[in-house]
Structures are given as C-alpha cells and as structure tokens.
Write a structure and sequence with these properties.
- There is one protein chain.
- By secondary structure, this protein is an alpha+beta fold.
- 58% of the residues lie in helices and 20% in strands.
- The protein has a single domain, classed as Winged helix-like DNA-binding domain superfamily/Winged helix DNA-binding domain (Arc Repressor Mutant, subunit A, Orthogonal Bundle), CATH 1.10.10.
- A hairpin with a 2-residue loop joins strand 2 and strand 3.
- Helix 1 crosses helix 3.
- The chain is globular and about 40 Å long.
C-alpha cells in the first residue's frame, strides 16, 4: 500500500517548484512546464490547496494558480 504523501507528494512538489520559478500559471501551463498529465496536475493542485499553499484567481474562464507565501 502507498501513502497519500507518496502518491501526491512528488507531483505537488513539481507544481510548487513550477509556481515558485515561473510565477502564477494556469493548469494547462503547469502541464507543459512540469510535463505532468492533467489529472496529476489537478490532484496536486488539490493537495496544495488543501494545505493552504495556493492562491486561486479566476480570470475570464481560466483559473490562475500562485503560491500563498
């Protein structure tokens, strides 16, 4: 059996690094930058959001994610 941290942690770490290095990004841009699949990006965003590490802003039809530092 694998823990939640083992399952979500690596993807969440990649997302956190991408946002730290590139600033605010959309989920589709995070897919490009991290080379993760969309489902991996979305689950990692949920993990980071649950931990209170994200700001989320809706711009037109897109959500822009940034770090809550």
């Amino acid at each position: 059996m694998i823990t939640s941290e083992e399952f979500f942690g690596p993807s969440a770490g990649k997302i956190w690094e991408a946002l730290k290095n590139n600033g605010p990004l959309t989920a589709s841009k995070l897919c490009e930058v991290t080379e993760l699949q969309e489902r991996e990006v979305r689950s990692a965003l949920g993990w980071l959001g649950r931990e209170g590490k994200l700001n989320i802003e809706k711009v037109h039809k897109n959500y822009i994610y940034s770090l809550n530092e």
